[in-house]
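Colleagues,

For the teaching module next term, I've prepared a clean inverse folding example: a structure given as tokens, and then the sequence designed for it. I'd like students to try predicting residues themselves before seeing the answer, so please don't circulate the second half yet.
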């Protein structure tokens, strides 16, 4: 009988195999596992299984309403993670083998590693438990000896049950709060119609709150004028600068902007400058040695911060590059770590890493590695080697494999890690720091200088060393000219410099990652703060995904390196405060969970008790949203600068709408004009609202969602309703294209984008399209002779004027990345290119990174490959013929779908592709003028369409589903 060892990652499985080979015999390598007489070793690739509610408890999007909430299933079912189904099936097959009678959980030493294994084991068992004994391999070091020692000291399944309970509880609690919170807030925001997706989560929402609170501080900040006095002093050896300060100044907790070197009125500042200018001065100074040690090794968060600050890489990009250096190049250790230390038995590995760097082709790193080896810098130190500070994984360091063939970005990140790894072993940098006080006319001026005596670890950074120092004031780095004992100096110049206080800086990804990591400091209760001290918001592995999720959900925008919260973000915070469920936006929630989960790990709290509390919290959140009965949610709302288009009154914001409150601004003489803040689930930004009111039109804008949740792009307009005697908001989908009115078009005031690829005429912007001058009736040519036309928005991708000019000049646009498939609703990238053969603009795609292997694809090459294989040996003739037959079948073009009799009456009875069906239906709708003139999203069915739709009126979003039932 054999023991199945399941690691979390393939690289760990390989390490285990290498460590066990000397003691248990050679392993044979298979596709998904290694095997010898005693062990079968395989691995997951992170999470292979995720939890889900049983089918009867799951509510699909589009039916998210309070009637279906809260969703608190009595148990959770499991489903495979789509991307890794193949690996899951392979692991499950091994676990079920009859000759496997024991399992060893070798996933990472921590809560998440425990969960990964437990879910795989549960899934493998199906309805019944797998029933095979389980032991736990607990590794904090990956040296061969540490792995062998771990196998000698396996932990029992019973010992690990409290950790397993905590792991499951965290996962299920996140699901309950995230799913119910998101659906409750979405239901609340969608009560007036449409679908306004409002996601919340235990980590996502407090992270967003941090960004919103900073933006609120910036918006409320009132800049104040202050003055500094800068003087230049002349000594025998030359000049030096000094800044005035008040030696009696004390810190003011209520006003952090007050500082010792600031004066708050110009008169006092000028008086001091005038009093000291030209005066003799006395000097006292103090010089003392100072040292600065290298920063500690990288964990993922600190690496993401550094790469964002130095190179502008996003957290997601840094993780992706580090993952590539780990998986593909084998050049870095596992990057998803929250530890900045190495195991205590890693000294020998560290020395070998220095030897590799010293002998490598990396000329910019090799000399420093050689210096460290020569001078014996690589030695034990608790600052580097500390088992107590190694969690699931140790710090990110170079492996023993010298990299080659790296991209520019990969090389930058590798150098960052390699330099930090070497620097931490080098001696501290040594400085001589001088503080000089110059007194002139009873006023004191401070001058500071810092001289590098021995570079130590800074030698590794060369010219970049200044960027690595922790000086808050770079002025301190300059060298001061010497002053003799008792020397009198002269105040040669003194000026009052007027400055303004500045608001706090917006978050960048680097500073937001720091805020997430240190979120425990924001928690007031000591126990909860302590529980979060090692955790923060999220984990190093998830923080990048949290930030990207907030960007994708349009809660934040990235402008340069700044992260700016959107109107949607402010609206969510207003909602949570107004409903009284602010706990969703506070890091204290994570602190409370961490405290209770740590109690569970120690056996001081039961899983059942914790999950009861989570269920109660979930019910509370839903109840608050469901029972809120006021018209608006209290908040800090804006008053618009643009007046009401109907009566000229003041327009104010409330939670749901922008509404006229009359010329007095009190609502007494309001005219009734208002429009939603969230048309089709997209929140207006304030500048957009002002433009919309002023111009009565805006767009095209992206980010709208249909009632079913699908995204779309449209213009919106204010149209006057004679019936209501007021203005109202309408969507303009561009169906009434002004280019097709039949009226003569005048292009005389417009500039051409280029020559028409069909006829050589000039191309102009016209209506919602780019058209050839000969494709519309003009003064010079009443009857169009060309049909070139290309939309300004194609599948939600705006086609900018510059891109159309490029297509006309070169035949192809740049790679555009905002197309959204009508069929799958997924975004895709493509070029737009002129297809001369078909006489139209069409898509052109990037070459696949994973081209199909010759012989596997359908077509002539596959057929030829099959024939060649058939001719090689007589013994294989039959299989080869089968392959050839398969190839012939695959080469047949798709016959299309057959329309029902009802649908055939509209589009004809020929077999047709699904996409072509929808096009023909829309052609028919437009030709018959069946769009409702009051609501262009609605279609009025005539006698032919009624049997197809099954009703008199449908929305544009229903058509695809209804027509699909008539195709076979």
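(Answer key — instructors only)
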């Amino acid at each position: 009988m054999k023991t199945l060892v399941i690691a979390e990652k393939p690289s760990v499985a390989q390490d285990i195999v290498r460590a066990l080979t000397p003691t248990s015999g050679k392993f044979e390598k298979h596709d998904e596992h290694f095997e010898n007489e005693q062990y079968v070793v395989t691995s997951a690739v992170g999470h292979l299984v995720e939890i889900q509610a049983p089918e009867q408890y799951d509510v699909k999007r589009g039916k998210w309403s309070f009637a279906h909430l809260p969703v608190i299933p009595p148990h959770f079912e499991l489903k495979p993670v789509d991307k890794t189904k193949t690996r899951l099936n392979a692991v499950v097959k091994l676990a079920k083998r009859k000759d496997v009678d024991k399992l060893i959980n070798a996933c990472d030493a921590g809560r998440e590693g425990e969960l990964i294994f437990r879910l795989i084991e549960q899934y493998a068992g199906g309805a019944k438990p797998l029933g095979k004994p389980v032991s736990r391999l607990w590794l904090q070091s990956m040296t061969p000896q540490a792995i062998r020692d771990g196998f000698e000291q396996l932990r029992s399944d019973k010992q690990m049950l409290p950790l397993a309970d905590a792991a499951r509880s965290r996962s299920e609690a996140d699901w309950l709060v995230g799913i119910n919170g998101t659906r409750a807030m979405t239901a609340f925001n969608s009560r007036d119609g449409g679908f306004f997706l409002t996601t919340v989560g235990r980590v996502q929402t407090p992270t967003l709150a941090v960004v919103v609170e900073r933006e609120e501080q910036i918006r409320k900040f009132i800049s104040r004028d202050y003055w500094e006095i800068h003087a230049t002093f002349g000594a025998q050896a030359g000049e030096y600068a000094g800044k005035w300060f008040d030696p009696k100044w004390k810190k003011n907790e209520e006003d952090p902007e007050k500082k010792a070197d600031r004066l708050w009125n110009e008169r006092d500042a000028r008086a001091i400058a005038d009093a000291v200018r030209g005066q003799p001065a006395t000097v006292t100074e103090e010089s003392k040695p100072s040292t600065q040690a290298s920063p500690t090794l990288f964990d993922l968060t600190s690496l993401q911060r550094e790469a964002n600050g130095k190179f502008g890489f996003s957290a997601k990009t840094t993780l992706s590059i580090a993952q590539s250096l780990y998986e593909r190049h084998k050049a870095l250790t596992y990057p998803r770590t929250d530890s900045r230390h190495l195991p205590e038995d890693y000294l020998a590995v560290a020395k070998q890493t220095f030897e590799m760097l010293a002998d490598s082709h990396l000329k910019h790193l090799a000399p420093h590695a050689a210096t460290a080896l020569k001078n014996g810098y690589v030695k034990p130190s608790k600052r580097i080697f500390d088992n107590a500070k190694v969690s699931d994984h140790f710090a990110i360091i170079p492996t023993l494999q010298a990299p080659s063939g790296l991209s520019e970005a990969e090389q930058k990140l590798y150098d960052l890690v390699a330099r930090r790894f070497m620097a931490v072993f080098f001696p501290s940098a040594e400085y001589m720091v001088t503080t000089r006080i110059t007194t002139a006319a009873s006023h004191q001026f401070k001058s500071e200088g810092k001289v590098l005596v021995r570079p130590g670890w800074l030698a590794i950074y060369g010219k970049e060393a200044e960027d690595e120092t922790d000086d808050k004031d770079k002025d301190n780095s300059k060298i001061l000219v010497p002053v003799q004992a008792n020397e009198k100096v002269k105040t040669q110049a003194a000026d009052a410099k007027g400055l303004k206080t500045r608001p706090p800086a917006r978050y960048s990804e680097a500073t937001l990652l720091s805020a997430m990591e240190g979120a425990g400091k924001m928690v007031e209760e000591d126990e909860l703060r302590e529980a979060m001290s090692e955790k923060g918001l999220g984990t190093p592995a998830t923080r990048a995904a949290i930030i990207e999720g907030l960007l994708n959900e349009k809660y934040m925008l990235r402008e340069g390196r700044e992260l700016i919260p959107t109107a949607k973000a402010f609206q969510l915070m207003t909602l949570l405060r107004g409903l009284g469920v602010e706990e969703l936006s506070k890091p204290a929630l994570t602190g409370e969970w961490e405290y209770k989960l740590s109690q569970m790990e120690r056996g001081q709290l039961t899983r059942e008790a914790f999950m009861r509390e989570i269920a109660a919290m979930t019910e509370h959140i839903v109840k608050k949203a469901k029972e809120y009965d006021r018209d608006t949610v209290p908040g800090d709302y804006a008053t618009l600068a643009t007046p009401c288009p109907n009566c000229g009154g003041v327009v104010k914001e409330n939670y749901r709408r922008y509404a006229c409150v009359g010329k007095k601004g009190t609502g007494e003489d309001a005219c009734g004009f208002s429009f939603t803040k969230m048309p089709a689930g997209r929140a207006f930004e304030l500048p957009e609202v002002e433009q919309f009111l002023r111009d009565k039109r805006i767009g095209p804008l992206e980010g709208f969602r249909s009632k079913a949740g699908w995204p779309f792009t449209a213009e919106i307009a204010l149209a006057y309703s004679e019936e209501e005697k007021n203005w109202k908001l309408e969507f303009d989908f561009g169906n009434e294209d002004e280019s097709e009115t039949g009226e003569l078009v005048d292009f005389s005031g417009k500039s051409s984008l280029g020559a028409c690829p069909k006829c050589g005429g000039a191309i102009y912007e016209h209506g919602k399209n780019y058209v050839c001058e000969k494709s519309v009736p003009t003064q010079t040519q009443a009857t169009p002779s060309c049909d070139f036309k290309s939309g300004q928005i194609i599948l939600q991708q705006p086609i900018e004027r510059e891109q159309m000019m490029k297509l006309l000049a070169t035949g192809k646009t740049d790679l555009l990345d905002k197309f959204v498939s009508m069929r799958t609703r997924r975004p895709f990238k493509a070029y737009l290119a002129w297809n001369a053969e078909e006489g139209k603009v069409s898509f052109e795609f990037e070459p696949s990174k994973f081209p199909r292997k010759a012989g596997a694809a359908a077509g002539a090459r596959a057929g030829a490959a099959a024939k060649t294989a058939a001719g090689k040996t007589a013994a294989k003739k039959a299989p080869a013929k089968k392959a050839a037959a398969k190839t012939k079948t695959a080469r047949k073009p798709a016959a299309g779908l057959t329309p029902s009799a009802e649908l055939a009456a509209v589009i004809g009875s020929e077999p047709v592709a699904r996409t072509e069906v929808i096009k023909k239906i829309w052609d028919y709708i437009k030709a018959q003028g069946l769009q409702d003139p009051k609501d262009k999203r609605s279609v009025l069915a005539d006698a032919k369409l009624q049997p197809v739709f099954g009703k008199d009126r449908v929305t544009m979003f229903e058509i695809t589903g209804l027509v699909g039932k008539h195709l076979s």
